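Hey, quick one: can you model this chain's 3D structure?
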Amino acid sequence: MKKAEFIKKYLDKRLGIDISDKKRNNEYVFARALYFKLSGMYTGLSLAKQASVVNRDHSTAIHNNNNVVDYVLTIPLYKKIFNEACEVLDPMGEMPEDAIITENNKRIEQTISDLVACVRKKQQKILDMELEPHERAYRELPADKRVIFRERAEAILKMI
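Sure thing. Here's the predicted structure for all 160 residues.
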């Protein structure tokens, strides 16, 4: 718990607040998100023990890890504080891979990958549909020839 307490004190001092206060404004929420991220990376403590250091319970740690920390790390000030804390906690200068690619980012990446695969399957179904010979020929025409094709097709349709 000493390392978790050190992380808390470091963030308290760096931000000029007490992150264990029962406040919900962004400054406190974002600071606690950094705390949970850092303590998860560097202490090996359970979520309940991490949370007890800042007078919270494990569900707060889960919520922060799943919903808050990725956003917080997009804010330049908090990203800078996070990187500085990583340097302090790991004097060899090696940031854990988890600091760069969080679990939430991995889930987002997987979701996007799944969506892309789904779109590709649907595109292929559309392309595999049986097309009339003139539809296939139209798709192979260059843009300038497509204009002529459309004009002539419209003229024919008007005559019918």
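One thing worth noting: DSSP finds nine helices and no strands in the chain.
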